[in-house]
Design a protein that fits this description.
This protein is of the alpha+beta class. Helix content is 24%, strand content 21%.
Length: 106
């Protein structure tokens, strides 16, 4: 995930859930088995038994089981008919679907 600063895009910027929400998730779920939209850095806080990174593509490829913690990316997506997959885009259009809506359906 990245953030824009002027005309530059910093791909190293990462959104991680606030610690109080992570603590609440642990309180409700106990152990977290899976975080399907994560990174090694985020998992230092989430402490999921298994997590999927952007490269793992937890939205399209993986089956989710157990206690799942999800802080979905805020990107926009479109359905790519040829590959039968959701793909992220940086574009803006009324035909795109919000990332949160797609991740919560998964």
């Amino acid at each position: 995930m990245g953030i824009r600063r002027g005309n530059q895009r910093n791909e190293e910027f990462e959104w991680i859930t606030n610690r109080d929400l992570v603590d609440s998730a642990h309180y409700v779920l106990g152990e977290i088995d899976l975080d399907p939209a994560s990174s090694a850095k985020a998992n230092e806080y989430i402490n999921a038994k298994k997590y999927y990174t952007i490269a793992d593509d937890g939205l399209n490829e993986q089956k989710w089981h157990g206690n799942v913690y999800l802080f979905p990316p805020s990107s926009s997506y479109f359905w790519h008919k040829k590959s039968q997959r959701w793909k992220v885009t940086r574009g803006l259009s009324p035909t795109l679907t919000a990332g949160h809506a797609i991740w919560w359906k998964a």
